[in-house]
């Protein structure tokens, strides 16, 4: 996921991202995290099509589908500008 700062931005710790800077997120560590994805290094073509085990309601059932953006799935980005 990559974004371009349209104005100067200061994080709460004082880190400044100047206007025009491109910022990227390395998604691989998140996508390979076993706390988030069961057996992440195994190819599972229907990983995002199946209802997750233990889903209590419809919202729980769809939250991990590929069409839903989240801080745990960055393929299309995240937030209001996600593709």
Please describe what this structure looks like.
There is one protein chain. The protein has 83 residues and is an alpha+beta fold. The chain is built from 2 helices and 4 strands. It has a two-stranded antiparallel ribbon. The chain has a two-stranded antiparallel ribbon with strand order 2-3.
Spell out the key features of this protein.
two-stranded antiparallel sheet, 2 helices, 83 residues, 12% strand, 4 strands, 11% helix, alpha+beta, single chain
Main sheet makeup:
2 strands, antiparallel
Outline the low-pLDDT stretches.
none
Helix run count: 2
Structural class: alpha+beta
The main sheet orders its strands as 1-4
- State the order of secondary-structure elements, H for helix, E for strand: EEEEHH
- Number of strand segments: 4
Q: Averaging pLDDT over every residue, what do you get?
A: 77
**Rg over C-alpha atoms, rounded to the nearest angstrom:** 16 Å
> Helix share of residues?
10-25%
Give the overall silhouette.
Answer: elongated
Give the distance, in angstroms, between the N- and C-terminal Cα atoms. Answer: 10 Å
* Binned strand content: 5-15%
List the topology elements:
Layout (H helix, E strand, L loop, with lengths): L1 E3 L4 E2 L5 E2 L4 E3 L3 H4 L26 H5 L21
Antiparallel strand pairs: 1-4, 2-3
Brief overview, please?
This protein is an alpha+beta fold and 83 residues long. The protein is 11% helix and 12% strand.
């Amino acid at each position: 996921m990559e974004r371009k700062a349209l104005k100067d931005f200061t994080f709460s710790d004082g880190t400044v991202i100047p206007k025009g800077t491109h910022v990227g997120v390395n998604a691989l560590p998140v996508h390979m995290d076993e706390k988030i994805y069961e057996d992440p290094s195994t190819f599972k073509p229907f990983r995002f099509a199946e209802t997750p085990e233990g889903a209590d309601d419809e919202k729980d059932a769809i939250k991990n589908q590929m069409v839903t953006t989240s801080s745990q799935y960055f393929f299309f980005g995240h937030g209001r500008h996600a593709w």
